[in-house]
Design a protein that fits this description.
Radius of gyration: 19 Å
Number of domains: 2
Shape: globular
Structural class: alpha/beta
CATH topology of the largest domain: Rossmann fold
Order of helices and strands: HHHEHHEHHEHEEHE
Largest sheet: 4 strands, parallel
Number of strands: 6
Distance between the termini: 47 Å
Helix content: 25-40%
Bound molecules: zinc ion
Length: 252
């Protein structure tokens, strides 16, 4: 009897969640979404949007590497600029796992729209390079098969559309599979990632400025390793764009 009850409870909860979304209710507070700020935005009300813990981009002039504590936490990096929406704080600590592990694809649309908006802000003019190409951090094929999708690609595809940048999801490949890197030190991550990625096809001629997209930057090891490969292929600047930064120094 008990197992049947639990099963039905789950089903009802799922249906209820779907109903809330179809009624246009805020993902965070449940209020209705009559006052959406963004036309593409159908998940968060104006009040919750205003409460999002976004980085103050004007202070760092559009590049988080200008923030001393972030710069200090990312020594010896191979990328040139860092753009990110928010420290890894709620609601992003719920949204990103929901996108990655529960396949809530509608969140990719919201998050990529918010990220795209950053590039149109005045503070970004200094770094408004004419990006030649956008790439996303690839998953190893085995992980991709199990998960069924790559969350970085889900974010990059609409971002490329918003920013009108050519996007190639297949130029980079992950050729070395590691277990989850959660909880590992920066040194362990760096060791795991040696030769983990490769360019599987030549970049278009004169690809000088690349925008590399991932969901979260934790130690910078992954984006650093890929940037190293891109620089070897004559790319001049790599700008890393992520939804969140999870550096210990930026959590508060
Ligand atoms: Zn709300």
């Amino acid at each position: 009897m008990t197992w049947q009850t639990v099963d039905w409870q789950k089903k009802i909860q799922t249906l209820y969640n779907k109903l809330l979304l179809s009624l246009g209710q805020c993902d965070l507070c449940g209020n209705n979404l009559n006052n959406c700020i963004l036309p593409q935005q159908t998940l968060v009300c104006s009040s919750c949007f205003a409460d999002l813990p976004l980085f103050k981009q004007a202070i760092v002039q559009g590049d988080l590497l200008n923030w001393p504590s972030i710069n200090k936490a990312l020594p010896n990096i191979n990328f040139d600029h860092l753009v990110s929406l928010s420290p890894y704080l709620p609601p992003f600590t719920q949204w990103l796992p929901q996108l990655k592990y529960q396949g809530r694809f509608e969140l990719a649309s919201l998050l990529s729209t918010l990220l795209a908006q950053l590039f149109t802000q005045e503070s970004f003019e200094k770094y408004a390079l004419p990006f030649d190409l956008m790439l996303s951090v690839p998953l190893h094929p085995r992980k991709w098969q199990i998960r069924g999708f790559n969350q970085a690609h889900l974010l990059a595809k609409p971002l490329a559309h918003h920013l009108q940048i050519p996007y190639d999801r297949t130029a980079l490949a992950r050729v070395k599979n590691n277990n989850s890197q959660v909880g590992q030190s920066g040194k362990q991550r760096r060791n795991n990632l040696v030769d983990a990625f490769m360019l599987v096809k030549a970049l278009p001629r004169n690809t000088k400025h690349v925008l590399l997209v991932d969901d979260v930057l934790t130690t910078g090891s992954t984006t650093n390793e890929i940037s190293k490969i891109l620089k070897r292929a004559d790319v001049r600047t790599v700008t890393v764009a992520t939804i969140c930064l999870s550096l210990p120094e930026t959590k508060n």
